[in-house]
């Protein structure tokens, strides 16, 4: 038997592990009304640094696959356990909580995460645990799931294409079943969904990047929908209008020309809905001027043309129903993307206020065709955007084009693609980009609480 003897193994390892940081990206989940009802958090696990052999009595001939109770038995945690602990620690941070904007989070679970006692630091009402189809189900795991289920943690069977042994063993504890309808056998779907609905399971359709996929899933009785189908041009006909969009375009064109207060006042008076929103915005806590704003002219002066312009740009994406902005998926996506672009370009060399403004515009108008239909190019021409912004959106040119590719990779949780893009955007790193994505999501989600975000729509 070979041993290596050294002293006090635990303390240095704990300190090192505090430096392990997981990264997270959000993907929206919608209900049958097309409103946000949750986010899946796509996780980039931290990479463990190369380390020398630990200074510890270790039986090198023993089975290297420690069982799930190894940490409790006093053994050093395995690499997988250290990664699991880092992910759980990251999920408890305030930046993740802020980015969820009050919605529940769906997170992929590994066996090591399920067995780590730190998992119970996650509030059961805020997190749903997704169980992968390749999870090895044995008596020990089954007992752990029963224990967590008894403590009101909720489980989702993930990536289901057709029932198998793992599916059958875990089904009694699952609140929801997630099915990628583009991968599941089409002939099996009607029967599978019917049986699961009869069993009282919530059905989540994933991989929905086209309107036709969404309509198929809706027709099959799915309850939740994950994918970016709502940000595609073909959804334009299904979105209702809160204020006439031609009025918003007229206002944007006026704002682009450095208008006087009198000109703005005259344009806004033609649009009572816009006046109502502006008065609310001017009287919000973030813009308070010491007394209640009662006239349109006061509201314009209190708010400022820059804020009015941003508010109008984002209002283009608002659903026409009586919906809080933090529940409107298209507006939230536009606001988050625009704010991310603004934050990210400020980290690049020689970027000033003008570049930040251009980055915000690039993000906010990068899928404006989802609102108006028609070609993206023709809509951008109507908006009279500058050539660098149009080139970034249409041809992905320049730093703005790279940042647009970056935020799209982040939205899809494509971590390898993100790493390649960050290599071209030094000093930006993947970890920083993910942090900015969470910060941008939190900013977009304060719609009805602060003038630092947007303003609530209550037509």
Automatic annotation (TrEMBL):
InterPro entries: dGMP_Pdiesterase_EAL/HD-GYP (IPR014408), EAL_dom (IPR001633), EAL_sf (IPR035919), HDOD (IPR013976), RNase_Y/CdgJ (IPR052340). Residues 54-77 are annotated as: Disordered. Gene3D superfamilies: EAL domain, Hypothetical protein af1432. It comes from the Bacteria. Residues 54-66 have a biased composition (Acidic residues). Residues 241-431 form the HDOD domain. This is EAL domain-containing protein. It comes from Paraburkholderia kirstenboschensis.
């Amino acid at each position: 038997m070979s041993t290596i003897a050294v002293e006090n193994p635990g303390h240095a390892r704990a300190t090192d592990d505090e430096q392990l940081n997981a990264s997270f990206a959000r993907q929206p989940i919608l209900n049958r009304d097309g409103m946000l009802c949750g986010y899946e958090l796509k996780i980039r696990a931290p990479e463990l640094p190369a380390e020398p052999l630990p200074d510890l009595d270790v039986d090198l001939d023993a089975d290297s696959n420690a069982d799930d109770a190894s940490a409790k038995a006093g053994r050093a945690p395995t690499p997988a356990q250290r990664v699991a602990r880092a992910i759980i620690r990251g999920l408890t941070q305030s930046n993740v909580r802020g980015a969820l904007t009050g919605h529940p989070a769906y997170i992929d679970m590994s066996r090591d995460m399920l067995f780590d006692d730190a998992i119970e630091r996650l509030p059961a009402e805020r997190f749903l645990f997704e169980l992968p189809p390749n999870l090895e189900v044995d008596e020990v795991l089954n007992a752990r799931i029963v224990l967590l289920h008894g403590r009101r943690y909720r489980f989702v069977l993930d990536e289901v294409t057709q029932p198998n042994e793992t599916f059958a063993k875990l089904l009694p504890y699952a609140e929801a079943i997630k099915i990628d309808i583009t991968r599941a056998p089409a002939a099996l779907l009607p029967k599978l969904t019917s049986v699961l609905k009869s069993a009282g399971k919530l059905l989540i359709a994933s991989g929905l990047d086209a309107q036709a996929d969404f309509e198929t899933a809706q027709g099959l009785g799915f309850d939740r929908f994950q994918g970016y189908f709502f940000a595609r041009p073909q959804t334009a006909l299904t979105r209702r209008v809160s204020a006439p969009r031609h009025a918003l375009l007229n206002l944007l064109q006026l704002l682009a020309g450095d208008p006087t207060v009198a000109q703005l006042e005259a344009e806004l008076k033609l649009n009572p809905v816009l006046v109502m929103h502006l008065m609310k915005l001017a009287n919000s806590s973030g813009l308070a001027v010491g007394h209640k704003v009662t006239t349109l002219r006061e509201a314009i002066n209190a708010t400022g043309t820059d804020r009015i312009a941003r508010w109008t740009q984002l209002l283009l994406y608002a659903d026409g129903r009586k919906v809080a902005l933090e529940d409107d998926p298209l507006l939230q996506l536009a606001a988050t993307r625009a704010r991310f672009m603004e934050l990210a370009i400020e980290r690049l060399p020689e970027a000033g206020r003008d570049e930040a403004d251009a980055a915000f515009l690039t993000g906010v108008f990068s899928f404006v065709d989802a609102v108006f239909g028609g070609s993206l190019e023709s809509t951008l021409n109507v908006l009279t955007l500058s050539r660098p912004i149009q080139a970034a959106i249409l041809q992905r040119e320049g730093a703005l084009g790279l940042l647009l590719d970056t935020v799209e990779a982040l939205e899809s949780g494509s971590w390898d693609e993100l790493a390649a893009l960050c290599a071209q955007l030094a000093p930006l790193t993947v970890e920083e980009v993910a942090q900015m994505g969470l910060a941008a999501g939190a900013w977009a989600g304060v719609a009805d609480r602060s003038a630092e975000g947007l303003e609530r729509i209550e037509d």
